[in-house]
Amino acid sequence: MQQTISHAIEQISKHVIGKRRQIKLALTCLLANGHLLIEDLPGMGKTTLSHALAKVLGLDFSRIQFTSDLLPADMLGLNIFDSAKQAFQFHPGPIFSQIVLADEINRASPKTQSALLEAMEEKQVSLDGETRPLPSPFFVIGTQNPAHQSGTYPLPESQLDRFLMRIQLGYPDWQAEKQMLLEQDSSGSEELSSVMTCQQFIALQKAANEVHCSDAILDYVLKLVTYSREIEGFPNPLSPRASKALVAAAKAWAYIEGRDYLIPEDIQAVLPSVAEHRMRAAIADFSGQDALSDKLLKAIDPLAA
């Protein structure tokens, strides 16, 4: 299984060049059965990464372009009367996929955001008085532009909290961008191929969840979240949901690293991606994105009794 994970990372790295750590974090999020938020400027590879994850993991994929006039029915589907059958026929929307790319998620109205919230939390949708389950596994990968750009709505804290992890891609380094330009001028980069089936991916999720977490690691997590609740300077202290998310993500990270047990470095590796978007009151720009997480990590010594 470790060889399969390594192969998946290598495949995605050929299309999202120079972002190996971000790819590992994104894969960590999906292995931990969580939704992923990718924040960055336009043209940084957010959509490319989402497509690559779905293809390599062997999962169904759909894309929803969020706009100010997007309606819940455009996303969920609707019932249309079939005159031949004299009955209403349900036509599912793009939300009925295993990986749903909510592109530019912060451009949709609050009404549409609330419809997405049920899908993310309950893995189901309610339409015309009927509840319909979503495919399993089910993930939302949301991409978000800076709040200062025109036509954006700030995501409510309740929806930000539904994203297990938040990552940024950032600008590529010199060599990575040069490689992109060379491939653009060549006959084309290598096509992506699936490295596993959906059933194999579910097995990987189960194995990641079984990574051992000792009492000492749990105490370390509790010290971190308690510090955010008791010390001033944290606009939104970490909730019990954040604690669970931190442990789940750390288990998946440890599994990707080839271990069946957690160490403090696993918690430290995923903390900014799990905690920062929950603790910040608002996301106005992308400067100082991990400041609050850094404050937590510096304040709490994992080796202290």
Q: Any overview of this molecule?
A:
The chain folds into 2 domains: 185 residues, Rossmann fold (3-Layer(aba) Sandwich), CATH 3.40.50; 96 residues, Helicase, Ruva Protein, domain 3. The two termini are 36 Å apart. Strands 2-5-8-1-9 form a 5-stranded parallel sheet. β3 and β4 form a beta hairpin. α8 packs across α10. The chain is 46% helix and 15% strand. It is built from 12 helices and 9 strands. The model has no long low-confidence stretch (mean pLDDT 89). The radius of gyration is 20 Å and the shape is globular. With 305 residues, it is an alpha/beta fold.
**In CATH, what is the homologous superfamily of the largest domain?**
P-loop containing nucleotide triphosphate hydrolases
Under the CATH scheme, the architecture of the largest domain is 3-Layer(aba) Sandwich
Oligomer: single chain
* End-to-end separation: 36 Å
Order of helices and strands: HHEHEHEEEHEEEHEHHHHHH
Which residues form runs of ≥5 with pLDDT under 50? none
The average pLDDT is 89
CATH class of the largest domain: Alpha Beta
Shape: globular
Number of domains: 2
- The CATH topology of the largest domain is Rossmann fold
- Rg over alpha carbons: 20 Å
Helical coverage, percent range: 40-55%
Q: Please, how many helices?
A: 12
Strand residue percentage? 15-25%
Find the count of extended strands (DSSP E, 2+ residues).
9
Largest sheet: 5 strands, parallel
Which structural category do the helix and sheet elements fall into? Answer: alpha/beta
Sheet with most strands: strand arrangement: 2-5-8-1-9
